[in-house]
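Entry for the shared binder. Reason: the reviewer on the internal report wants the predicted structure included alongside the sequence.
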Amino acid sequence: MSTLSDIKAPIQLHLTEFETRFKISMQSSVPLLNKITNYILKRKGKQMRPMFVMLAADICGKINDSTYLAASLIELLHTATLVHDDVVDDSNERRGFFSINALWKNKIAVLVGDYLLSKGLLLSIKNDEFELLKIVSEATREMSEGELLQIEKARRLDIREDIYFEIIRKKTASLIASCCACGASSVKASAEVVDKMHRFGEYVGIAFQIKDDLFDYEKSRTTGKPNGIDIKEQKMTLPLIYLLENSSYTDKRHIIHTIKNHNQNPEKVAEVIKQVNQGGGIEYAHQKMIEYQKKALDILKEFDDSPSRQAMQQLVIFTTERKN
């Protein structure tokens, strides 16, 4: 499997230019805001979203100023949602760093999230990029709906498979879909091509989330045992949903009772993980992940071969075969 450095190779110069422009787009006349945004920039992740934007643009045309703006817009709005998520979840850490709310408290974190959101909106309006704004705004709406749908359903632990796919399509896949659609739109691709890239990104996002679900059932490098974090947090993921949908009424009630009332008991959590394994939940989820990966790769084959198309293919494989 290719490394991220290999995948970035065709667009590395563009990613470097994007970083410079993104830093400028965050600037403020308020010293406290600059201190916080500099902290956010220092703890950047793998650059997955800008990679999807740049590769999609390069597959559909030629990377230009609109492409850099599209990547900045997505990063600004996405970073805003992450800052707000940490407040909502009362989370003190993100990617091994202290969260904004842990260092500067909730009030400042919410205001910083609002600031980033407004910067994204203004950036697109100032440059008359209304199509990009529309794509990203729709993704932001879907992400919020997905989160709320998950909260609503999680209370009763009654998520069916179709509802699960609706949640992850909105909550996770809509963002990757908007990256790919924005990349295509930034190079003035036709509405049909933009739509095709959006569908491609959606399939990748669904496969990505199923892979995330499967991590919970894989052995941890430190303990040698599955983490079971999703079970502890009463999150209904695909392997567990499959088990429940294929269990007898009595077994289903017992599993739900365990998740609701004994989710902090390591032995009880391990028992549910064992049942998921034995009930074929892992195998089923893995099969579904491969199904969506193939759907995405089939769309990609419709585009002309190029270094960026090959890199995008490797990025799809990376997202579904990654180790963390």
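Summary line for the report: The chain has a mean pLDDT of 87.
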